[in-house]
Amino acid sequence: QVQLVESGGGLVQAGGSLRLSCVVSGSGFSINAMGWYRQAPGKQRELVATITSGGSTSYADSVKGRFTISRDNAKKTVYLQMNNLRPEDTAVYSCNAECIYYTNYLRKNFYWGQGTQVTVSS
Question: In the predicted model, what is the mean pLDDT of the chain?
Answer without folding.
Answer: 96
